[in-house]
Design a protein that fits this description.
Helix content: 25-40%
Number of domains: 2
Shape: globular
Keywords: Hydrolase
CATH architecture of the largest domain: Alpha-Beta Complex
GO molecular function, one term: bis(5'-nucleosyl)-tetraphosphatase (asymmetrical) activity
Largest sheet: 11 strands, mixed
Distance between the termini: 20 Å
Order of helices and strands: EEEHEHEEEEHEEEHH
Radius of gyration: 18 Å
Protein name: NUDIX domain-containing protein
CATH topology of the largest domain: Nucleoside Triphosphate Pyrophosphohydrolase
Structural class: alpha/beta
CATH class of the largest domain: Alpha Beta
């Protein structure tokens, strides 16, 4: 299964209906520009959360086909755990809590790119790679150009005492460590894709 977040709501790409909720609207057949236009209109005008799934023998190929006229961008970031205090690093960007991440440079390894972005955006250094969490996709418009962003998410650990410094020029106004019991504060003021990453991280830690 693949998900592309549109207006903070996922569009699913699946091989079959297994695991989908009964109220999911199914689209079968080859996706095209007309299908995409109708999907976007439905998501943007919906008065409540809806579920749409495109059913295909090759979900990933169907996703790429549907968004073939979009500019594809790759980014990377991750959740950092302070192993000394068992706390987790989050940023506040444009009024919302978020996970540090940023666009990859051409040819840059996603793990190294995630590490670079986290350290730049948060003012810390020497974080250590732990594992891969998940990949997410979401679309947005920038200066009239349609973009789909694929983000690689990783887990990192940290043992230092650097003073947290937000990268103001990137719209970041706060960087903060959160205890596990206070993570609901993030969930109440963030994006659905970030909740997806947090859930995947929790599942990874429990497995």
């Amino acid at each position: 299964m693949y998900k592309v977040f549109i207006e903070n709501t996922p569009l699913y790409f699946v091989k079959n209906e297994k695991g989908l909720k009964s109220d999911t609207f199914l689209i079968k057949g080859k996706p095209n520009a007309i299908v995409l236009k109708n999907i976007l209109s439905t998501y943007r005008n919906a008065s409540s959360k809806i579920r749409i799934a495109i059913v295909s023998d090759e979900p990933k190929k169907a996703m790429h086909k549907l968004f073939e006229n979009y500019t594809w961008v790759e980014a990377a970031g991750g959740i950092v755990r302070d192993t000394k205090h068992d706390k987790y690093l989050f940023i506040k960007r444009n009024g919302f809590w978020d996970i540090a991440k940023g666009k990859l440079k051409k040819g840059e390894d996603p793990i190294l790119g995630a590490q670079r972005e986290i350290e730049e955006e948060c003012g810390i250094s020497n974080i250590s790679f732990e594992d891969k969490i998940i990949e997410t996709y979401h679309i947005y418009d920038t200066y009239g150009k349609d973009v789909i962003k694929k983000t690689f998410w990783y887990s990192f650990t940290y043992e230092g005492d650097d003073k947290l410094t937000p990268q103001i020029e990137e719209g970041i106004t706060k960087v903060k460590w959160f205890s596990k019991t206070s993570l609901d504060k993030i969930r109440y003021n963030t994006f659905a894709s970030i909740v997806e990453v947090m859930d995947a991280y929790s599942h990874f830690k429990q497995s």
